[in-house]
Amino acid sequence: MSRAPRPLPITTTQARQIWLHAQRLDERAPFGDGAQAVSDAVAHLGYVQIDTINVIERCHHHILFSRIPSYRRADLRHAQSVDRSVFEYWTHALSYVPAGDFRFFLPSMREHRREGHKWFASVKPADMRKVMRLVRAGPLTIRDIEDDVLTEKEHLWQSRKPSKRALQLAFYTGAVTISERRGMLKTYELMTRHFGWEKLPKPASTKDITAYLLDRALRSQGVVSLDSVCHLDAPRKTAVAGLIASRVRRGELVPVAIDGAGRQEHWALPAALEPGERAPPDLVHILSPFDPLIIQRKRTNLIFGYNHLFEAYVPKAKRKLGYFALPVLVGDEIVAALDLKTDRQAKKLLMQKWTWVGEGKKTAGRKELKRKIEEELDRFEKFQLAE
Question: How far, in Å, are 86, 231, 287, 289, 328 from residue 14 at the CA level?
Fold first, then answer.
């Protein structure tokens, strides 16, 4: 019986370089431009999270802008509504995902169709029949339905419109999809009609989904742990761990030990461990708090030594970084957190608070660091105010 290979020690600097390359944040324009760049970025990352907070531009646009310097919001609309190369569904949160990955989400859709959805347990069959009758007649938004009798909310984020809850349930069951967004106004369309299918594709097997989750993480994270592969999806850890073990035995994955990770195990593809170039020291990214590099807080803290605080729901007096602080990546270091707000009426980006973190706390070289960040802030402001 062969022994399991000993983990290869790597520094946090090495882990950082591997992760930045996997996230394509170590070069300025890795995906080109236009709608095709959006499709390619979503396909590579696996998902781009959607969120409603718009104190600055919403996170799905922000995440794409961080990797596509010439990004325009119309490019995402084109990818979703014309090319149909991306669609919306739930990953760890509501996200844009590649249309090519559709079959991996079908089992969840079928489960919701069979068992319902805990968030929409109050949806009445009559309301579901109503919205499906309407959407069969053509695409619609919730504003097109004006005859609802409003009901009390069962939780904070629930709509008072029964039709909206029914449309959301139809979305989770895969009966309808979101064919277009204007801001956060969603247009619902029959799934089959939107994609031009006579029937839905064949769903992926449980084994295929396990491989998909691991491969997606290896592609977009470089160095992975069970927690990072199964982010907010703990029930899949046993199956993913079994697949990792089999790939390690076949020499397809290498166990690695990251400095400071303690007993938490990590793995990487052999090719990912080959020496690469560090991100250029003048490359600056102002990141969304929902960016894949930031959203897994413990992982970001381990590899970057930065503990991001999301304080939108924290009382103002207790905030340390600010209402909607954005981490700033310079080269391969997170050096600051900027609490920004877009004043769209006055057409300017407001600096609420600037906090130096990590290497940014050092006074040596801070003047040059600030100059680089301010140059990127100019570009970021133009993106905020465009279109």
Answer: 32, 22, 21, 23, 19
